[in-house]
Amino acid sequence: MVQPRPWIEGYVRAWNSNDPDDISALFTEDAVYYTEPYSSPWQGRDAIVSGWLAHQDKPGDATFEWHPVCVTEDASVIQGVTTYPDKTYSNLWVIRFAPDGRCREFTEWWMLHDVK
């Protein structure tokens, strides 16, 4: 069973480094990454790296807290909160893993918290 913690730690590391090698290491060659559930995905590791870098955050600009909702043999559902200096998002991630622990399919839902 693939545990999500090492992969998420790598994701956060890549998020803070924006290093193409850190990003690339997370995904299989043929992985797909849905930035929204019903949008066209970034298809393939090279497209994922390019898409990520085109939408990158500044290193250290956000904090991410998370916990698993469901972990199965090859998939995990993660609930998280991403906090930026000026906004906060709730996140739900569905991560489908290859046997080696890399991601073969990633889908994220993100919802902006209402600012009162």
UniProtKB/TrEMBL annotation:
Limits of the SnoaL-like domain: 8-104
Pfam families: SnoaL_2 (PF12680)
Gene3D superfamilies on file: 3.10.450.50
Coiled coil: none
Alphabetical list of InterPro entries matching this protein: NTF2-like_dom_sf, SnoaL-like
CDD domains linked to this entry: NTF2_like (cd00531)
Protein name (record): Nuclear transport factor 2 family protein
The species this protein was found in: Nonomuraea diastatica
Lineage, uppermost ranks: Bacteria, Bacillati, Actinomycetota, Actinomycetes, Streptosporangiales
